[in-house]
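step: validate -> pass
step: tokenize input -> pass
step: predict -> running
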Amino acid sequence: MTACTVIGLGEAGATYAAALTAAGHAVTGFDPVAPSTPAGVTRAATAAAACEGADIVLVMTGAAAARSVAQECLPVLAAGSVYADFTSSSPGVMQELGQLPTQAAFADVAILGPVSALGEKTPLMVSGPGAQAVAALLEPLGVQVEIADGGAGAAMAHKLLRSVLMKGLASVVVEAVTAGKAAGLEDWIRAQIAGQLAGDGQAVIDRFLTGTAKHAVRRSREMQDTASYLSDLGVPAEMTTASANALARIGQATEPALR
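step: predict -> pass
step: emit ->
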């Protein structure tokens, strides 16, 4: 049995916390706003308190909180423990966090799919000194874990490159279907899009439409990080920047409806 801590009990955090509990691990969680706690999870009053005595910490907050959470939690962790950051932070931020003073081994974890659809079995890519420990914990749950070469930041570098396609494609599909609906040609444009997508194309389109509206603000921030990363590589990022701007607009329009 491993003493696990999950920081952030939103959709992803609650999913992993519940799965780890079901697998027989002792799970402590912390979240300042989540209204509920998964069954069997002990909820701590602070992030630091949640990390005391932990063998491994899984951080599943938004990227904006990555630095503050790391600064609070890393000093508490003992030698031999692991701090795994699942936030969609940029490779540069992951490298920075991986260099903070701590006795824990840092792991940069990239989630390569929608947790809302795949749950705890969503494929992961991990890098950094704590990568093997993350794989050892999660692979028994049925998770496909790929360990990327390189230190902290390598996994997110892969994810953000993938995001150039995935997040940009979702934005294009939303725009095309919205325009098709306005023109009275929604069925036609959906058929055109479905013909370009492998697998169950209509289900993919529906997931893009609902998921983009629900997660637009977070995805916009991720695309901003992606554009910054492409700039670091010397690669033009016009479409990535455009996707970030579009997602920010969608988020502002849909947030009131989601409250």
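step: describe -> The chain has a mean pLDDT of 91.
step: cleanup -> pass
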